[in-house]
User: What shape does this take?
Amino acid sequence: MAAAPTYTWEFVGDLFGDRVPKIATFGLTANVQTKIGTLMSMVAGAMSPTTDGTCGVMVGLAAETISTDATVNDPVKIAVLFPGAIIKGTAAADASAHSGFVAKTYDLDADGSLDPTDTTGGGLAVYRTEDSGLTVYCVCAVGAAF
Amino acid sequence: MAAPTYTWEFSENLFSDSVPKIITLAASTGLMTKVGTLLITDSSGHLDEATATVVKIIGLAAEEISVAATEGDPVKVAVIGPGMVIKGTSDADASSRSGFYGKLFDLNSDGSLDYADAGNGSLSIYRTEDSGLTVYCTVGSGAAF
Assistant: This one.
């Protein structure tokens, strides 16, 4: 069983305007599960929870819970992210030194948290942090659709 | 360091009617701005003036900083995103570069567009006025996208 990653994300706002994500339906990769707010990436033509190395092809946030392992192409509703969309999540360690748009290729760990030491293969820029750098507000800088 | 001579202003958005939001970011040591100074982020996440290498544009200063800043001082910034058009000054006739000729145009240290430098920057020239000396540019690549 491939449980959904521990840490989820939520949409906060749009750095460049007042847009909000649209919900679209995509096909899932086999044997994955989601929570509401699981960051999802397009890998080999299907949606998988974003993990180490796949944040650069993120598409959006899961908008529903899938609690049983998916079969290939099972539908999943996703809130599609876009350049400038701000999402709030959890960092694996103090990310305060990375705030202010230091880089735009930050990646996730397998548990869904932001890895502030990994700028390879990702697509997030850290806008600001709270809670001693453990809560991160990130802008989507690189994704599968932009 | 004094703020660059030439400033920019928000003009419009090619893709929608959205306008820049104002957010507060942190200054680098010595930063000085005018309203409309084009700003970039540096490698430590602080704001700096966009001069000769504008690879990480974040927006336009929304306030004047007339005394050299201490690192971390707050600065209000109008954040520039994809499709947003900013209006500024070219150092020479840039009319032949309009129509999105390239998207790596750079600035001079005085804040004007260096129409002859299409490397190391991140601006694209949409159109020009005033014999090519007033330029309307979009940002091809920025710190946040």
Q: What stands out?
A: The two ends of chain A are 32 Å apart (CA to CA).
